[in-house]
Amino acid sequence: MKFSNQIVVVVGGSSGIGFATAKAAHAEGASVVIVGRSQERLNQASAEIGSRARGIQADVEEEASVEAAFAEIGQFDYLFISAQDAATASLLEITKDKFRPTLDSKIWGALHVVKHAASRINKAGSIVFISGLAGRKGYPGFALAGAANAGIEAVARNLAVELAPVRVNTVCAGVIDTPMLERVFGEQKLRVVEQIAAKLPVRRIGYPQEIAEAVLFLMGNGFMTGSTLLVDGGDALV
What we know:
Low-confidence stretches: none
Number of strands: 7
Distance between the termini: 37 Å
Number of domains: 1
Radius of gyration: 17 Å
Structural class: alpha/beta
Helix content: 40-55%
CATH architecture: 3-Layer(aba) Sandwich
Order of helices and strands: EHEHEHEHEHEHHHE
Oligomer: single chain
CATH class: Alpha Beta
CATH superfamily: NAD(P)-binding Rossmann-like Domain
Strand content: 15-25%
CATH topology: Rossmann fold
């Protein structure tokens, strides 16, 4: 049990990749704290994860609620920040109001979390962020989403130096089958997923559990910091 007697905090842990990571960490012996905006969803997710899981409500865009959440959590060992909003739009449709949640959750939200977590994390522990391929490749409609993803990788590299010896890494995920696909693509989701899967070398999109495995690897590998681990089914190749 790789994470026995360890505390893993997952921000955005009530669904998608965050939930899969919390569940995987619990299966490896960790006590898990999931953080999210909906207490009802946190309660449901905690019950499904297992007996050593609990949920704490906080909105990453509201610094005061993040500060209160980590005061309640106290000392812990590992942190994964998965909470994010996502939006896409063509250049002519971009507005500050439409994209503020994407940028605020991905960048400011993550910084709020680390700011109030840094003094409580075990110095032998680690922080893992998540980014996406739009920060590395060009996709129509993903200009600002790409900026947010590239930005969080830059944040991680700089914090790896600033927060040392705490390790800070990023998982860059390809297209993963999570509820976010519904929010981004809406009714076009099935068509878009089929098109993406057809071009990938692995001929399918990814599953949340596969990203969770990468997150736990970065948490547990004591010689990795400032790195970005690409888990994309070969998307960057094509």
